[in-house]
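> example.struct
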């Protein structure tokens, strides 16, 4: 190693640290990058930090040489609340193909369950009941997607490739082939009104909290289904339970909750029209995520802009 070697620190959930360090060392050794993975380095010597808040470290003040914080998670609302890091240091969200593909497959699986009314087949089969029914084709099914970022765009593209009528909504205008895109307050109403199956993959910010409430739920077509893998507080839980009770909403699949793990006495557990999944929609996959991290560092070392930099003011 020369004096041009850059130091990469690793501050992550302690149960994951060994795996990250091993994979980083493996991929750095196989690359031409002038990097040293060093979990014991003096903070003043660290150039890049692979990080998540489950490390329990929240103050980057001693890291005076830091060029970037590379978060191992896509969601950053926790870091934005708890972390002290200097303005001039970019804080990057995780975007990596393993997580993206996992998320696309999660939404596709639950969308197809609703689309094909798979539960009905399971019930009828268990009851020994021969009763024909014909689901619509995907071309006649409206799927709405709230959030068209790294994950939402990939979901929208896959839904479009599967032939659904896809409507997506984001803060800013988008152009995604095969997808009708909406933005702004009016755009939200339009997107909701087309969404027989609503996929929610927004970040949690002061603007998106309880974005799905009594008023917005009422905009969905009667009998709509909801899949939320963004964050729990995006949904007003009381409003959703009410909409499930009056059958305006047929079913909800929820991966994320205001409190996690979901408390044992929460009405979502055992609700006949709610499927709870334990925050498993998409994981950061260490191997592909390490490649993404090293690509970010390579860009930075070559003077190119880092990607997926969190905007503190926007909150994501
Ligand atoms: P991203 O690339 O930052 O995309 C966020 C999207 O939300 C963007 O399209 C953005 O609009 C839109 N948005 C934000 N605020 C909005 C507002 N007020 N009105 C309308 N649209 C708004 O994030 P991502 O990588 O796709 O991840 C999204 C979220 O998924 C994460 O924040 C995290 O909470 C969640 N997640 C969950 C899991 C899980 O396992 N359950 C795993 C990974 C991620 P613009 O494009 O116009 O900026």
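> example.seq
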């Amino acid at each position: 190693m020369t004096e041009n070697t850059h130091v990469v620190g690793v501050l992550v959930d302690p149960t994951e640290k060994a795996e990250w360090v091993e994979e980083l060392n493996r991929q750095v050794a196989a690359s031409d990058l002038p990097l040293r993975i060093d979990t014991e380095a003096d903070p003043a010597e660290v150039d890049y930090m692979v990080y998540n808040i489950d490390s329990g470290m929240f103050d980057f003040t001693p890291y005076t040489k830091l060029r970037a914080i590379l978060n191992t998670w896509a969601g950053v609302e926790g870091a934005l609340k708890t972390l002290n890091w200097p303005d001039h240091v970019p804080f990057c969200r995780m975007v990596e193909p393993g997580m993206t593909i996992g998320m696309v497959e999660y939404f596709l699986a639950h969308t197809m369950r609703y689309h094909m009314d798979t539960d009905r087949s399971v019930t009828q089969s268990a009851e020994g009941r021969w009763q024909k029914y014909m689901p619509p084709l995907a071309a006649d099914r409206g799927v709405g997607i709230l959030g068209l970022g790294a994950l939402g765009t990939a979901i929208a593209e896959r839904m479009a490739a599967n032939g659904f009528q896809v409507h997506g909504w984001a803060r800013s205008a988008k152009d995604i082939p095969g997808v009708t895109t909406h933005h702004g307050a009016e755009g939200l109403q339009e997107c909701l009104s087309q969404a027989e199956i609503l996929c929610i993959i927004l970040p949690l910010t002061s603007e998106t909290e309880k974005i799905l409430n009594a008023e917005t739920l009422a905009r969905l077509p009667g009998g709509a289904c909801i899949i939320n893998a963004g964050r729990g507080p995006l949904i007003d839980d009381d409003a959703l339970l009410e909409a499930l009770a009056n059958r305006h909403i047929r079913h909800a699949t929820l991966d994320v909750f205001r409190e996690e793990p979901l408390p044992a006495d929460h009405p979502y557990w055992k609700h006949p029209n709610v499927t709870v999944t334990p925050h498993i929609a998409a994981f950061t996959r260490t191997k592909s995520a390490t490649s993404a991290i090293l690509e970010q560092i390579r860009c930075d070392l070559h003077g190119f802009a880092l990607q997926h930099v969190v905007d503190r003011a926007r909150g994501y």
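> remarks
The radius of gyration is 22 Å.
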